[in-house]
Write the structure tokens for this entry.
Amino acid sequence: MYSFDKYKSILVKKFEVQESSFEGALIFWIKKFGGSENNKKDFIWSIFQQVLMHIAKTAPDEVWMYAKQREVYCSMFEFLIATKRNASHTIKLINYCDLKQAEQSEFHQNVELITTKCCSECDNLDGLIMPLEEALEKEPLPHPNCTREYGCICCYGFRAARDKEGRLIPK
Ligand SMILES: [Zn+2]
């Protein structure tokens, strides 16, 4: 269920948006665009975008950045579902963060596509394994032909690649 206050509280408490600047920006937004429920939803979305920009600007390293961005994208995903908006793009970004986080490993990684119970299109990809580099290049998830109403829920599993003797392969 969507409520403006719920997302305000997520932005303020979880993502450390200052309440006073949230309120100030809201007044400005309503003056400019009007105060309908829909306009206020757009406002919430714009603050999420600002949080993302702030993370990108202040990130001490990539590991931290992708982990933090993923958290924000997950809340954005929830928001989109609650407001019945299309979430495909945000799902794509969450999947991308997962790949980029796995890329930080000092060993070569394999990626497995886990598509259980998404839709019949995605079912065909279940268990497919590819090197992380290939997954980063192709971004196979979300499946472009996924038929699930609110977007593809498939995800990646990661496993360190091993050589013939079963040893991990350093980069
Ligand atoms: Zn699907």
